[in-house]
Amino acid sequence: KLKIWVISGGSNVLIQDGVVEGLVISLHELKGIEKVQTGEKVLITCLAGTPKSEVAKIFIQNRLPPAVFLTGIPGDMGSGVVMNAGIGENRVPREFCEIVEDIEVLRIDEATGQFSEVKILGRDIKWEYRHSSDWQPGIITRVTVGWSHQADMNVPNDVRAQTKKRITSQPLDLPNCGSVFRNPVGHKSAQLIESCDLKGFRIGGASVSKKHANFIVNDQGATALDIHRVIEHVRATVLEKTGVELKTEVVYIGDWRLT
Predict the structure, then answer these.
(1) Which residue ranges does the chain devote to CATH 3.30.465.10?
(2) Is 116 a catalytic residue?
(3) Residue 2 burial by CB count (10 A; 0-12/13-18/19+): exposed, middle or buried?
(4) Quick check: is 130 catalytic?
């Protein structure tokens, strides 16, 4: 049976070296704002490959808070739903579950080969930390997000502050696969990693970022296997020294059983 992976912007994935055996579908070109409705709520409908930054611009124009957290995370809208993407700060909203009105999912009937598109309301999706479910099987093709139309004049300043914070605290100048580990309950992954003196730890061309410990950067021509080995070393070291098990946020594509 053919293994299928669906990606969008590819900002939080690690793809194996060499040939991936299976079908990789990219939605990155399936992008565009389709509709903006204003009333009691501002509703924005877009294709799944639309960058979060494009949706953030509309929220900024309307001085609405979702602009702030959307500015703080990379990638496209469809993957934002899949991962319930968000920021770690205590603000409202800070995750996709708070803004999604509905999604459209493309499904294939395996018996007939026929395609169908199903609309699923945001409240019917099961939302968890960096994960969503109950919309599968299928591929998210369209997302509608919304927020109460009550302008907050601080939003533009908050967006600028969020952008500055991201630039100064994350290694955006080097190739990386995004935030590597989820934050365990009661902990920050970056703080746990730093407490184990792992900043700068290196295998091959990959190292733990000295700027933000929850990022692994490709600063010397790393292979995917280099990055994978750094991830596993960090996970094992943190577990041994702190007793806390780190779970990956990054999505693996390929057959990693061979590594």
Answers:
(1) 31-168
(2) no
(3) exposed
(4) yes
